[in-house]
Amino acid sequence: MESIDNNIFDQGQKCIKELMATDSYPRFIKSSKYRSLLA
User: Fold this and answer.
1) Which residues of 1-39 are buried (b: 16+ CB within 10 A; e: fewer)?
2) What is the mean pLDDT of residues 3-22?
3) What percent of the chain is modeled with pLDDT above 70?
4) How many angstroms separate the CA atoms of 13 and 29, rounded?
């Protein structure tokens, strides 16, 4: 069996993190569901 590189998921993790920071999280902060949690 070939050895698996320890960094196998690094690029995918970076892409997901960037997407969360630039799209998902800001949209959630602006959502009515989030605002209702603050009320």
Assistant:
1) eeeeeeeeeeeeeeeeeeeeeeeeeeeeeeeeeeeeeee
2) 95
3) 97
4) 22
